[in-house]
Amino acid sequence: QLGSAHEVQRFQRDVDETKDWIQEKDDALAADDCGHDLRSVQTLQRKHEGLERDLAALGDRIHQLDDTAGRLVNTHPESSETTITKQKEIIQEWTRLTTKAKARKEKLLDSYDLQRFLADYRDLTSWINSMMALVSSDELASDVTGAEALLERHLEHRT
């Protein structure tokens, strides 16, 4: 019977350790920074991918604890109420964490789209300004050869 009590205590300790791990990952997800340019967003996305790998390992741990809880409820009915309570707590915290991780991933994807758009906008604006400088000229041709040269220069920048 001492071994049985030890098994239940080990389960409770494992749940508490896992809850601490969940809290650690939750703290990592608490950052509101979504990046200020394309490079910083990509850095944050890579960091989030690393966190998702950690969450996959944590998910395996949660499933193991869930299986253990189910087994302990059957083999140790005297502590089933405590076991079920711990099981529900860990599942709730896990669900909350995964929801938060998905929301963070979506925010980073939206931020990436915004920064990509802004980078494209800046590039296009720069190109337009350089083209405007090239094609808007007060220079007028004084003869046919000069007019043909201006027209050729204009057509060169048109495409």
UniProtKB/TrEMBL annotation:
Entry GO MF terms:
actin binding; microtubule binding
In terms of Gene3D superfamilies, this protein maps to:
1.20.58.60
Provide the alphabetized UniProt keywords: Actin capping, Actin-binding, Coiled coil, Cytoplasm, Cytoskeleton, Phosphoprotein, Repeat
The principal localisation class reads cytoplasm
* Swiss-Prot/TrEMBL GO biological process terms: actin filament capping; axon midline choice point recognition; long-term strengthening of neuromuscular junction; maintenance of presynaptic active zone structure; negative regulation of microtubule depolymerization
Record's protein name: Spectrin alpha
Q: Which CDD domains match?
A: SPEC (cd00176)
InterPro entries membership: Spectrin/alpha-actinin, Spectrin_repeat
Name the Pfam families for this protein.
Spectrin
Q: What SUPFAM superfamilies does the record tag this protein with? A: Spectrin repeat
The uppermost taxa in this organism's lineage are: Eukaryota, Metazoa, Ecdysozoa, Arthropoda, Chelicerata
Native source organism of the sequence? Ornithodoros brasiliensis (Mouro tick)
